[in-house]
Each structure stands twice: as C-alpha cells, then as structure tokens.
Model the fold of this input.
Amino acid sequence: MSASSAVASQALEALAVNIPRQVQIIYKDTKMNFDFAEQINSDLENLDFQKAISTAEKELSNIATTAFHEIIGKTFTNPTDDLVNWMDSFYKEISKKMVVKAMYFEMNEFDINTDVWYIDGVAYKEDGGLDLEDMEWLSDCKSDVMTTKEFVLTGYEKFQNLFETIEEKEENDEWTDEMQDARDWCEQIIISRFMEIMKKAHEAAKERKLDWGNIPVYFTEHAYDFIVKS
Done:
C-alpha cells in the first residue's frame, strides 16, 4: 500500500460515518495486476490515453483468444455531452454551498461490482494538488459535497457479465492462466477508457466555457490510488 493509501485510509476510518466509497483510496492488493498497470501508468499520467490503450490492446492480442479480447476497439457508448451535463449539474449544485476549486471522480470497483458500472464524484473548496505520496486532502469532505446520483456507464455490459462469471469458472477449474492475463489487460483497458472519457468531458467543458472547465478534475477507479489530473 502506498503512503497516500495509508494516510487516506486512516482519515477515512475516523470519518467513516460521513465518507462513502468514492474517497476510500486504497490499493486492491490481490486483484490488480500491477506489473501490467506499470506498463501504461506513465502514459495515463501524461493523459496519453490512446497510447496506453494501444499498448494494452497489443499485449492482449498476444494472448490466446478469450472472450475478454472483444474489448479491443470498443469504448463506452455514453455521449460525452451526457457526462458533461451530469458533471455540470453537480458543479452547479455544490456551487450554491461553496466555491468549488477542484473535483474528484471515481469509477466504481467494477471487477467485483458487476451489476452496474458508474461514476461518483466529490467537490472540494481547495485544490490539494496531485502528489500520489500524499493525497490526504481527498478525505477532507462530507456527504453534502458528493454526487447524489450516479452516472451509469454503458457499452460494456458484456464485460460486466464476464467479470461476474470469473469466480464460477475458478470454482469449476475452467479458469486458465491465459484467461487471467486476458482479464487483467481487459481491466487496464477499461480503466484507460474511463479516464479517456473523463478527459474528453473536461475538454468539452472548456470548449463550452463552463465554469468548471478551468478547475482541476481528478479521477481514477475506486480502490486504486493511481490518480490522474486533467
């Protein structure tokens, strides 16, 4: 677990009654393939999502074909404007209570929450900056500055089902090393695609001259403390 994970987790334990899932920034110690993640994290950090996705898709294509391979070339189907409008509505609502200096969004922990894949968010009155060794400021929030309605992601329903059936395949000894590697690269592609649409939404907000277009927007997958900033 990284330093930012430990600090955030300690703060959240003290504030558990007020802090929901979206700011619980902790590593998935047993689920995430960090060897794979490290191959594309520098590109994600540089917001070069196409390069990250290209690398992940190439690595996936080198593995014996599985159902997870169908992720290649597929994106979330939500129109960017729908996401922008959802984020704008959240910003406007919180702006009635305070001056918003930064926003943070998470995709839910999709590999174990397979029914619905969605985004949640939090607004902040101060921008604590991006330092993966110290993201304690993300835990400094209460429920009244969090999204009350999730943004449901669409287009990957087949993959929701694939992640759902992994445990059954493992129990039936139908799970192979190739399937695991394919699953892990599929996971990296999904995270990258999520970050890609978040960046596109922020860019669209700037083009539309929305008030939050010029404030920092942070995002990641829940329970993964590799956070990027747009």
The beta strands are 102-107, 118-124, 151-152, 217-221, 228-229.
